Amino acid sequence: MCKKFIQVLQVLLCFFLFITSAFSETESVEHIEPKSPYYASILNFQLIGGAGFAWGEIIDKEYDSFKLDYTWDDGYSESSRPDHTYWLAGLHCDFTPFRIKGEEGRFYSWGIRGMILANFISQDTSVGDKDFWEEFFISLFEDEDETDDSYEVDEAEREVVSYGGLLLRYKSWMAGPVIKLFPDRNQNFALEFYALYGKIFDGVLTAFPSVRDYGTEFNEKDYVTKVRGDQFMIGASAGNGRISLGLAYTISRLKLDNEPVVYNGLGTETDIHTFTFCMTGGFYF
What we know:
The chain contains 6 helices and 10 strands; from the N terminus they run ααβαββββαββααβββ.
């Protein structure tokens, strides 16, 4: 009986030593504190801005339905179809209190991202020896007297005449999960991945800005409509919590209050897709 009792005590002692050793190892891992202050933060506020390109049924209608024919003073004629640029501006807040230690000491932080955005799609139709963007950057370094606001420059040189304006503008709020990977816990650097869903509000579509800017007469009710709908965004970026650079893909599912007559059968529901280069700047704590 005494021998069996001693054997049981030995087994219990071994089990106790195994358990305490396991807890001791776990505790030592859990208490590894990263040296990166960004990783240790819970809240991160950022201002965001970006530019990219857009495509979808509305833009197809604009491109297919309008061609600018321009005749220069010397009688030379050129034609051009519209280009579209997507712009965004806004802010977001990350709440990331949850942390996981990954392989090889790498740390992950995940939480919720909330975002509010102003979305714009502008249209430009340019003719001439230089395209719109080339002429735009050149104009930044020229005297104001040499280039007017419409980028209409020196008829004799046939450089650039540009018509256009704002095609679509709307605001949106979005929220969704965000995951941040810190490859080195000692460095204030993270890769961020997020997926967001939200609602579009306060939107206005004003069809064919190039036509209107060119001086064509139009009935406003045939061109203008209110816009609402849903918005989805997925993206990735790299940054240190103070500034980041990234890419995002967005699909905006628009519901038009009225079908613009000039779009000829578009309907009241349509999608706009955008691919955007984004830059953010802010602070964390």
